[in-house]
């Protein structure tokens, strides 16, 4: 089954946004001058095509839901309006606005339906068209397209003028003076069905997914698209049992010094800070790891693989035991090759595991694609079964993680073959450009939607995802305030 992939290239999204604005504006201005109702509805359909294009600007998460809902509602609104025009024409009337004068008294039910369809197309509350536009505009604002939402709202105000003209003709112009002037038009029950759709709005909630409920007085509309968060951690926040496991690993990369990471983090009062917010903390100490000076590189395409695999097996045992003992395992590295053993340990105990991977790099190389042979750039690929046997084999091969339950955040530097592999992997990637554009909270919220069905989320955080202004020794310069147009390449 295919996947929806967001249009993340800024050039394409900007182009779609411009086309949407032109489509809305041209359609509404053309409809503004019309007195023939069929032509008015035809031009307004062009404007609504522009509203639908707004969904393609934010085509994932709440944007996709908003667009699909708006399309569904629009079909019923527009169909109802055209059927009403056809009913008047077949009854001997015409398509000109003057033919609708007094329709509210000649055929009250038909006039009511047509008014509801038109006001729903405008986006007036409490009709379903209003809800559809609220979803679209909210998705645009949440993802940084406020100016586009403002233009769309102004176009809706323009459409109100020409739709109100029809309602005015039906109810305020040509009012019959006697009962003999009232000649009801015969219409079918299908108008009732279409009217009901215009008076129904959906309710999206975290616990129940999406359901429908009628728009009745006193009923509140909930427009939240917040996904249900899977239970990744047993226990309440501020009331967890945490076991710290240090892995002073620097065999996975060429840069020395990262083996001091566990000590540096502990020195920053990690344990005390966790205890202050109510957690029970136990420090297991460090996993023994060989040092590069005491070892020889046997395979330049996968440097220090035997030593890294040995340390990761010990880490796997420690992580699995911590989970079985009821602890949350907090692993401190070391380079990112420690993620291999951490994931081995988790999948030995938990099934249906998702991965939330914060990193400036993809870590999706294999010995065959890596320019450097550094295993810290192969950790995620190994977790998904790509690479050499010693890295990809765990005790339970059936526990391998599905790529659709893997989300990367903060990516800004990929090797050429790694980029191709990621593109075809099914992994959901949020680049640093998207973090800058939408904000970290919005990106994380979208990321969580990909963990439906997961019982456990493994969070892996590489410090180089932080901008070097905040963590100067972490990595090449990121895309913060003074970011280069093309990120610096660095082999992993």
How would you describe this structure in keywords?
single chain, disordered N terminus, alpha/beta, 4-stranded parallel β-sheet, 492 residues, 17 helices, 3-stranded parallel β-sheet
Question: Any overview of this molecule?
Answer:
With 492 residues, this protein is of the alpha/beta class. The protein folds into 2 domains: 204 residues, no CATH class; 225 residues, Ureohydrolase domain (Arginase, Chain A, 3-Layer(aba) Sandwich). It has 17 helices and 9 strands. The strands form 3 sheets. A 4-stranded parallel sheet has the order 8-7-6-9, sandwiched between helices. The protein is elongated. The N terminus and C terminus are likely disordered.
In summary, what is this structure?
The protein has 492 residues and is an alpha/beta fold.
Uncertain runs are 1-10, 178-183, 201-235, 476-492
| Helix share bin | 40-55%
Q: Any guess at the CATH architecture of the largest domain?
A: 3-Layer(aba) Sandwich
The end-to-end distance, rounded to whole angstroms, is 32 Å
Number of helices: 17
Q: Give the strand tally.
A: 9
CATH superfamily of the largest domain: Ureohydrolase domain
Report the CATH topology name of the largest domain. Arginase, Chain A
Rg to the nearest angstrom?
30 Å
CATH class of the largest domain: Alpha Beta
**H/E element order:** HHHHHHHHEEEHHEHEHEHHEHEHHE
Strand content: 5-15%
Sheet with most strands: strand arrangement: 8-7-6-9
Mean pLDDT: 78
Overall outline:
elongated
Number of domains: 2
């Amino acid at each position: 089954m295919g996947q929806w992939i967001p249009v993340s290239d800024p050039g394409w999204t900007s182009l779609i946004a411009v086309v949407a604005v032109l489509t809305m504006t041209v359609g509404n201005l053309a409809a503004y001058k019309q007195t023939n109702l069929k032509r008015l509805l035809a031009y307004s359909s062009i404007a609504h095509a522009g509203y639908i294009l707004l969904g393609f600007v934010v085509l994932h998460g709440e944007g996709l839901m908003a667009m699909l809902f708006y399309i569904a509602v629009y079909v019923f609104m527009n169909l109802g309006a055209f059927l009403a025009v056809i009913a008047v024409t077949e009854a001997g009337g015409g398509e000109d606005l003057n033919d609708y004068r007094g329709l509210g008294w000649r055929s009250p039910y038909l006039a009511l339906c047509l008014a509801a369809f038109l006001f729903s197309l405008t986006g007036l509350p409490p009709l379903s068209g209003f809800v559809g536009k609220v979803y679209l505009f909210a998705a645009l604002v949440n993802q940084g397209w406020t100016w586009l939402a403002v233009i769309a709202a102004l176009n809706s105000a323009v459409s109100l003028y020409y739709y109100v003209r029809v309602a005015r003709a039906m109810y305020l112009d040509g009012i019959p003076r006697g009962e003999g002037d009232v000649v009801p038009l015969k219409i079918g029950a299908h108008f009732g069905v279409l009217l009901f759709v215009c008076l129904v709005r959906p309710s999206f909630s975290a616990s129940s997914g999406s359901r429908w409920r009628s728009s009745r007085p006193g009923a509140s509309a909930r427009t939240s698209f917040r996904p249900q968060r899977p239970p990744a951690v047993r226990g309440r926040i501020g009331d967890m049992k945490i076991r710290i496991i240090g892995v002073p690993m620097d065999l996975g990369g060429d840069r020395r010094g990262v083996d001091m990471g566990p000590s540096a983090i502990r020195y920053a009062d990690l344990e005390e800070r966790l205890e202050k917010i109510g957690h029970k903390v136990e420090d297991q100490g460090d996993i023994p790891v060989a040092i590069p000076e005491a070892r020889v590189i046997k395979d330049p395409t996968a440097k220090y693989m035997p030593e890294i695999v040995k340390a990761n097996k010990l880490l796997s045992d420690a992580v699995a035991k911590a989970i079985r003992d009821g602890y949350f395992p907090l692993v401190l590295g070391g380079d990112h090759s420690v993620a291999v053993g951490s994931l081995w340990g988790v999948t030995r105990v938990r099934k249906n595991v998702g991965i939330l991977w914060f990193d400036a790099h993809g870590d999706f190389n294999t010995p065959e694609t890596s320019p450097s042979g550094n295993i810290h750039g192969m950790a995620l690929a190994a977790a998904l079964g790509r690479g050499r046997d010693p890295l990809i084999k765990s005790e339970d091969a059936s526990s391998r993680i599905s790529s659709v339950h893997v989300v990367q955040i903060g990516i800004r530097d990929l090797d050429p073959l790694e980029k191709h592999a990621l593109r075809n992997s099914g992994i959901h990637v949020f680049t640093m450009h998207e973090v800058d554009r939408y904000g970290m909270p919005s990106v994380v919220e979208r990321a969580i939607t990909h963990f439906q069905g997961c019982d456990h989320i493994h969070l892996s955080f590489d410090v180089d995802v932080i901008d070097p202004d905040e963590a100067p020794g972490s990595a090449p310069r990121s895309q913060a305030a003074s970011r280069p147009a093309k990120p610096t390449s660095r082999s992993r």
